Amino acid sequence: MAISGKTVDTKQEQVESLRSPTGVGLWQRKSFQRIVRGIFAYIFLLVGSTLFILPLLWMFSTSLKPDVEVFEFPPRFLPTSWDWNNYYLAWTALPFTRYLLNTCIVTFSNVLGNLISCSLAAYGFARLRARGSNVLFILVLATMMVPFQVTLIPTFILFSKLGWVNTLLPLTVPAWFGWAFSIFLLRQFFMGLPRELDDAARIDGCSYFRIYWNIILPLSKPALATIAIFGFIGNWNNFLGPLVYINKQELYTLALGLNLFRGQYVTYYNQLMAVSILSLAPILIIFFFTQKTFIRGIALTGIKG
């Protein structure tokens, strides 16, 4: 009782100190400092976001300019006349509909392959007890240290011997055998889930695969969404892979199709920017609608390791 009475007295003293002129002045100064810090933070974020979005706005502006205004000096940010016909001319100048279909096939196949193969491997590393699993996981992570350019020639020789060159197989099949970075992210997330869920499921007679399918995956939607977004962006913008393995124009992806706009003597930059905007739009739309899930997956991954 004495302790509680002392606590009440302390609280009353704090309230009386705030009610005093000195306490009111201190509270006003702290509020003013907090408002000033907030204003400077918003100004900093506004300037930074403007610098980041300015190239995209310039790309959009260039896509609507006539040919004579692309290299006008001094440069004009807004065109005098908005030429929306550039989008139609650019899309029909080359078979971009076919390129879009090829890109969708490669991208969605890789995303699905990554989700299935990486989640299975990560589940084994995180939830199953096996001798030497930590050593094997270190070997998987070691593959991240090897640059893609080092294995490019041996991989090309392998796919050439298999007869996969000039097909979409070299761009889609490897994703079904796991990606070290995705396995690492999912393993860290799976290790953060309580093991009591596995024990309770095994008591009810669930197999390891049923635990993975009915318990682990439904609880891992943020991490899986993060892996899907990473895979989508990486494969949608992939240029080096299609450039190495594909020579037939009917199998080109959007990245290779954009490269065809670079002419030997002249380049129509307004049409190039128009197709670039169209190819960039799916990424912006997907990230806009999934940014909360993406950020949550990044924040929750690696909490327990």
Structure description:
This protein has 2 domains: 56 residues, no CATH class; 216 residues, MetI-like (MetI-like fold). Helices cover 73% and strands 0% of the residues. Helix 12 runs antiparallel to helix 15. It is flat, with a radius of gyration of 28 Å. The two termini are 45 Å apart.
What features would you highlight for this structure?
305 residues; MetI-like fold; 15 helices; single chain; mainly alpha
Distance between the termini: 45 Å
Count of spatially separate domains: 2
Unreliable runs: 1-6
- Summed over residues and divided by their number, the pLDDT gives a mean of 83
Gyration radius from CA atoms, angstroms: 28 Å
| SS content category | mainly alpha
Shape: flat
CATH topology heading of the largest domain:
MetI-like fold
Helix content: over 70%
Number of helices: 15
CATH class of the largest domain: Mainly Alpha
Major sheet attributes: none
CATH architecture of the largest domain: Orthogonal Bundle
Beta content: under 5%
CATH H-level homologous superfamily name of the largest domain = MetI-like
Order of helices and strands: HHHHHHHHHHHHHHH
Give a brief rundown of this model:
The protein is mostly helical. It has helices at about 1-20, 20-65, 65-70, 85-95, 95-125, 135-140, 150-160, 170, 180-190, 195-205, 210-220, 220-235, 240-245, 255-260, 270-300.
